[in-house]
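Write out the 3D structure for:
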Amino acid sequence: TPTYTFDLARLLVDMIETEKYGYYHVTNEGGYISWYDFTKEIFRQAGMDVPVTPVSSSEFPAKATRPSNSRMSKEKLSDNGFERLPAWQDALGRFLKEIEY
């Protein structure tokens, strides 16, 4: 899931102000998305009509085998009273506004 560093940094500040130490898995909400769909959404939100062609992972060989599903639970955030990050779609929109000239 895409993660906006601005959102992550805000959460980290909230976390260090507590004593709820440990390992957390943090990403923006909004569900799993492929690189293909993420790219399409970037162009859509940017108002750009750009054709995007999907390709499979097998077309880009890597030295290490990557799992097809490496999602992890974010329940520990809620269990410890932390707010989950906003949806990645919202985060993308805020990022695109931030980089406009």
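The two ends are 27 Å apart (CA to CA).
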